[in-house]
From TrEMBL:
Protein name (database record): ER lumen protein-retaining receptor
Species this chain originates from: Buddleja alternifolia
Any GO BP: protein retention in ER lumen
GO CC field: endoplasmic reticulum membrane
Highest classification ranks of the organism: Eukaryota, Viridiplantae, Streptophyta, Embryophyta, Tracheophyta
Principal location class: endoplasmic reticulum
Annotated compartments: Endoplasmic reticulum membrane
Top-level taxon of the source organism: Eukaryota
Family under the similarity heading: Belongs to the ERD2 family.
UniProt keyword list: Endoplasmic reticulum, ER-Golgi transport, Membrane, Protein transport, Receptor, Transmembrane, Transmembrane helix, Transport
Presence of the UniProt keyword Protein transport in the record: yes
Length: 129
């Protein structure tokens, strides 16, 4: 395993765990962008579609599931938790994230090596496999 990938994965995992602990213990999501968290969910789900078609390693599979799960959990807290959702300030979260999705999808359809679902999803999230 590449040491840089391991350090990157663990740093990312640690930051997400800290974010979830902050939300859970303080019962607040003040200062966190729901729109950014929704984009993370979209990126991880589209990026990790190969989870169902290809097996690389146990580590890879677990990390993909953890990143998808934690991202969905953060969005769930911010949208549906009865206490936490009240602390989300929609007026301060002004990023128009829905304007990013259609251009990315169009680029994925136009720029690809082969026109397959797995190839198009790679360019949709702008990361090679």
């Amino acid at each position: 395993m590449n040491a840089f990938r391991l350090v990157g994965d663990m740093t990312h995992l640690l930051s997400v765990i800290f974010l979830l602990l902050k939300i859970r213990t303080m019962k607040s999501c003040a200062g966190i962008s729901l729109k950014t968290q929704e984009l993370y969910v979209i990126v991880f789900i589209t990026r990790y579609l190969d989870l169902f078609t290809r097996y690389y390693s146990f580590y890879n599979t677990v990390m993909k599931l953890v990143f998808i799960g934690t991202s969905v959990c953060i969005v769930w807290y911010m949208r549906l938790h009865k206490v936490v959702k009240q602390t989300y300030n929609k007026d301060q979260d002004t990023f128009r994230h829905y304007f990013l999705i259609p251009p990315c999808f169009l680029l994925a359809l136009l720029v690809h090596r082969s026109f397959t679902v797995m190839e198009v999803r790679n360019f949709y999230v702008f990361t090679p496999t």
